[in-house]
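Morning!

This is the sequence you dropped in the shared folder:
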Amino acid sequence: MSTEETAEKVKGLAKEVAGKATGSDELAKEGEEQQKKAQKKEEAERLEEQAREKKQEAAGHAAQESQRQGT
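The structure's back. Tokens below.
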């Protein structure tokens, strides 16, 4: 989890709480949306990392297969 996304989640939560405390539905909704956006960005980063790991793993398997075949 990146520090940037954590900060965005916290700011969004603060807005949501402030909006609910003051009766501002608009501010509360803005806070909720900010939190969702940060969560989606975190998920995208996690999936990108998994893809990089799988790509490295596949490259390693291809190299091993090539060595076994003597090429």
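Headline: The helical segments are 3-22, 25-69.

More detail when I'm at my desk.
O.
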